[in-house]
Amino acid sequence: MYTFPNRLKITFLVLVLVGAAGLVAGFLSAPSTVAEAQAMVADAHHGGGHGETHGEAATISHGDSHAEKNSHVAETTEAHEDDHGEHLLHQLQNKPWAALYVAAFFFMMIALGTLAFYAIQRAAQAGWSILLYRVMEGITAYLLPGTLIVLFLLVLSGMHLNHLFIWMDPEVVAHDKIIQGKVAYLNVPFFLARAVFYILGWNFYRYISRKYSLAQDAANDISNHKKNFRWSAGFLVFFIVTESMMSWDWIMSIDPHWFSTLFGWYVFASMFVSGITVIALITIYLKSKGYLPEVNDSHIHDLGKFMFGISVFWTYLWFSQFMLIWYSNIPEEVTYFLTRIEDYNLPFFGMLVMNFLFPLLVLMNSDYKRSNYIIVGVGIVVVLGHYIDIFNMIMPSAVGDQWFIGMAEIGGFLFFLGLFLWVVFSALSKAPLIAKGDPYMGESERYHY
User: What is the tally of structural domains in the chain?
Assistant: First the structure.
């Protein structure tokens, strides 16, 4: 039985408190008026607001024209500056909300990706991974609080407390024919109802699979194992549909003008490799503390192979989506990548190095996949890389080019990191780390190649 040490509890609590302080600072520093927003941008650019300069130039260039024309230009310029100022205010007000949402979604995504991997192992009746079941169940314990936090943020968006989802604003919809054509699907009641449906389904499977897993330890037959097999096979059908719809709802609809038929698979690959990587990291940590003695290099090697293979799969999906959209050059689609290449150049291309090039070059070597130190090093890079991937999916549509890594972004990541680790390690301490009743346990203990 794993014991959750007090020093780890203190460490995770400090992460939560420091993260919460950063989030509060981010929200308090957000502007409340257009003037404050313009002043913040002017300070960031070392003085001289762009809007003011543009307005003066427009007035001067038409100053020698007829009075009526000059008046019309002034009114047009003023209206344009008002719209620009309002848009800028919404972007800067969105910044702490978006930072909170990115971190909340990312750590929820890790738990959901782990649950999918766990269900696949159960449905396939794989023998090698039985020793890792309780680690997976510990990680998926975060799914309930993680999904509820995301749902809470979605409800707040539906109450118009932020501007993350522009299609929730009736004024925007009234002047946007593209969004008007999607109102039957993109409306707040249906949006939240779908979210509740997804969350109930995912968490119900997690609850029922955990229940049968623990019951199998004390059982004299394998009936609980068989039930878990059937539930896992059914869940995978439910998951692959709801995961795609979730990715459309919770991420793609932030920019309702853009769409990609590969997006559901792309998000799935990101959550899948993130979940597998965290399984490897926590398994290696527990083994270093004297737990899970039966876990050997072959188990770690298999986790490393999954990290390598899914990283390549993620890159295939990324390139397929990028290449097809870039080559077709349809304005409504290619704008998505133009915005990220122009305004998010470093995180956009940096994540390709972290999520593909680095794991490809390191994990291609079979011996390296058996090294705990290398798996941990690559794993940390991959986890951070996919956090940046989620950052790239959400931030450009939410805050435009008004992004930077500040208190809200750092605070959001640390807050949810501490909360995630606290929930996971608490769950690990509530049940034996070995699923001794599983009929394939012997195969997992003898797993060597």
Answer: 1
Is residue 42 a part of any domain in this protein? no
**Cα distances (Å, whole numbers) of residue 437 to 214, 218, 420, 433:** 8, 7, 28, 12
In angstroms, rounded to a whole number, what is the distance separating the alpha carbons of residues 197 and 369?
A: 39
Residue 86 confidence (pLDDT): 77
Q: Would you call 449 helix, strand, or coil by DSSP?
A: coil
The CA distance from 63 to 61, in Å, is 6
Q: Is the pLDDT of residue 193 over 80?
A: yes
**Residue 128 phi, psi (nearest 5):** -70, -30
Q: What is the pTM of this model?
A: 0.90
Cα-based distances in Å from 65 to 57, 61, 62, 73, 74: 14, 9, 5, 10, 12
Residue 396 lies in a domain: yes
CA pair distance 399, 196, nearest whole angstrom: 27
Burial 167-202 (b: 16+ CB within 10 A, else e): bbeeeebeebeebeebeeebebeebbebbeebbeeb
298 lies in some domain = yes
Angle between the 263-288 and 133-140 helix axes, to the nearest 10 degrees? 120
305-334 mean pLDDT = 92
Structure tokens at 51: 């809007």
